[in-house]
Amino acid sequence: MPEGKLLTFIKELSVLLEQKPSEEIIFTKGKKLLETLIAIDDWLPTEFTKPHPQYYQQYLLYADPLDRFSIVSFVWGPGQKTPIHNHTVWGMIGQLRGEEKGTPYYPQAGGGFKIGKACVCPPGHVDTVSPNTHDIHVVENNLADQTSISIHVYGGNIGRIHRSVFDPINGTPKSFVSGYANTLVPNLWNPAQ
Ligand SMILES: [Fe+2]
C-alpha cells in the first residue's frame, strides 16, 4: 500500500532528528524534507484548511511523543495577522496555499524593535525562525481576498510552549500558550494524506 506524504515526512524528520543535528543541518536537510511535503498540494485533509472568520487557525497535524517536533497547519483568512511574537525553538514555515508575509522584528537595547526585511512567501517557499538569530516576527495573510495556508514545523510542541507576544512600542513581553484549534488529528495511515 502506498504511504501518505505526511507520514513519509514525519518518518524522515524523525530519523534526521534522531541524529541530534545542528540547527544548520535542520535548516538544510530538514528544510528539503518540508519543501518536498509542500511541493504538491493534495494531501492536507479539508478539516485542517478551514479559516475562522475572526482568528487565524492553528491545527495540530502531528506532535512527536518526545516533544522533539510538531507540525501545524496555519490557516489565515483575508486580513488576518499575528501579534509580534517569539517561538523559543527553531521553526520552519512552508507555504502550501495562497501567500503570506513574514516580517522579522529585532529587539533593540532600551526597548522597541527594528523591523527587518519582510519575506513574501509563495507556495513552495520555506521561511525559518530561530531563537539564536531571528526568533521574533509578525506573520500575515498577504492576500486580501483569499485564504492562505502554511505548514509549520517547530523544534518542540509549539502549542504547549510558554512563549511571548510583545508590545510594538516598548517591546514589553507578555506570556502566552497558543494551543491548537482541533480536537482530532489526521489519520497518518490514510495513504491520501
Ligand atoms: Fe511565528
UniProtKB/TrEMBL annotation:
Gene3D superfamilies: ATP synthase delta/epsilon subunit, C-terminal domain, Jelly Rolls. CDD domains: cupin_CDO. InterPro entries: CDO_1, RmlC-like_jellyroll, RmlC_Cupin_sf. It comes from the Bacteria. GO terms for molecular function: ferrous iron binding; oxidoreductase activity, acting on single donors with incorporation of molecular oxygen, incorporation of two atoms of oxygen. Keywords: Dioxygenase, Iron, Metal-binding, Oxidoreductase. Belongs to the cysteine dioxygenase family. This is Cysteine dioxygenase.
